[in-house]
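User: I'm writing a tutorial on reading structure tokens. Could you give me a worked example: one chain, its sequence, then its tokens, then a sentence or two explaining what the tokens reveal?
Assistant: Sure. Here is the example chain.
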Amino acid sequence: MNDAKANTDPGLAGLRSWRQGQGLSLRDVETLTGVSASMVSRAERGLRRMRLATCLQLARGLGVPITTLVGGTPKDEQ
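And here are its predicted structure tokens:
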């Protein structure tokens, strides 16, 4: 993925918003879901696209609908 595309992809900005609202760190999410903190961070910022299976793993581990994880604007652009 080129840098221009990465900067416009909202990624999992919904996850970041939800995670911060719950007071969870990236490490907390890693522990709950088995998805590495670095992968979650990059996805939240729109720098990495996740496969559907990984998004489902996140949603199940956090006990939220997958729609909670998507949408919004990366914090770096706000």
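What the tokens reveal: The CA atoms of residues 26 and 37 lie 5 Å apart. Residues 1-8, 72-78 have pLDDT under 50 and may be disordered.
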